[in-house]
Predict the 3D structure of the following.
Amino acid sequence: MFFTLAQICGALILLFEILTLLNNNKKQILAYNTLVNFLSLLQYLFLQAFTGVFAILITFIRNYIFNKYDKKKKKAPLYWLIILMTLLIIFNIQTYDGIVSLIPIFTVGLYTIALWQDSVNKFKLLCMFTCFLSAIYNFHYEAYVSVITQFILIFVCAGSYSVNKANEAKKKKRKRKKRG
């Protein structure tokens, strides 16, 4: 039964992950990401993938902090990044279960750095890499629907990143025409 519930969570994660990656609004990205993290937390609890559970708990803290600063139109100070990364390491050391269990520390850490930098394009670029690593973790812990989700997300990230880059190039071209 828990296995089936985990796979249902994985299907819902797919829906909200795509909404996250197709969005260019940081506030909405963080909101969707919070829902994805809650579903991931349940999924990993059902599968007893405890390093994933602790990494997800840190993402709730991260999203809360980043949302507070985003509402003030400010970037979270560097010390928050350091605190979050330290907590990630401390909590996940407790549940070490081989090299694969380190993946959540690494992926959540990269994701946190990407969000902290305030660049949607950097976020989407790093997301492709973290999705690949997450697919490995999910396969190891039998979150099979989430493995499929991760590979779909790699393609969604790549497409969204390409569209953003093309739009940036068009804007630069228009600016040059106005000056010329």
